[in-house]
Amino acid sequence: MKAVRLFGVNDVRVVDVDRPVPKPGEVLVKVAAAGVCHSDLHLIEHGRRAQKQPFTLGHENAGWVEQLGDGVDGFEIGEPVMVFGPWGCGHCAPCQASFENYCEHQSESPVLGGGLGTDGGMAEYMIVPHPRLLVKLGDLAPGEVAPLSDAALTPYHAIKRSAAKLTPSSFVFVIGIGGLGHMAVQILKKLYAATVIAGDIADDKLDVARHHGADHVVRTDRPDAAEQIRALTGSKKCAVVLDFVGAAPTLALGAATVGLNGDFTVVGLAGGHIDYAAGVVPWGASLCVPYWGSRVELMEVLDMKRKGIIDIDYTTYPLERANDVYQMLREGRINGRAVLVPSH
Question: In terms of pTM, does the model score above 0.85?
Answer without folding.
Answer: yes
